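STRUCTURE:
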């Protein structure tokens, strides 16, 4: 089970790096995957995998910021709401995970 978890995390990190590399080329699926990875990173951060969550959030945030598609996506109100919701879930999940670990004494 531990090996499967490591393989899954490695695959997610590899796909996130690929999205980071190709998102400035206006490749729309890479930007959508970056938003999805922000959600996954928030959930992983909430459950205590802080280092993995920070790395995925960092790569996804930079990929979204560098993409020229992002300007076109924010023309309607629904895409602004969806995009901001995914970003909020990602970062709040990470913050709640850090708070939980700090209360348990795992982080000093």
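SEQUENCE:
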């Amino acid at each position: 089970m531990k090996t499967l978890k490591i393989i899954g995390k490695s695959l997610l990190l590899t796909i996130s790096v690929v999205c980071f590399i190709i998102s400035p080329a206006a490749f729309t699926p890479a930007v959508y995957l970056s938003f999805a990875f922000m959600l996954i990173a928030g959930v992983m951060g909430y459950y205590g995998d802080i280092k993995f969550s920070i790395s995925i959030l960092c790569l996804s945030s930079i990929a979204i910021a560098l993409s020229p598609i992002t300007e076109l996506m924010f023309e309607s109100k629904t895409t602004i709401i969806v995009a901001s919701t995914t970003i909020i879930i990602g970062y709040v999940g990470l913050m709640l995970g850090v708070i939980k670990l700090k209360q348990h004494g795992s982080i000093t």
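REMARK: Residues 2-104 form one domain.
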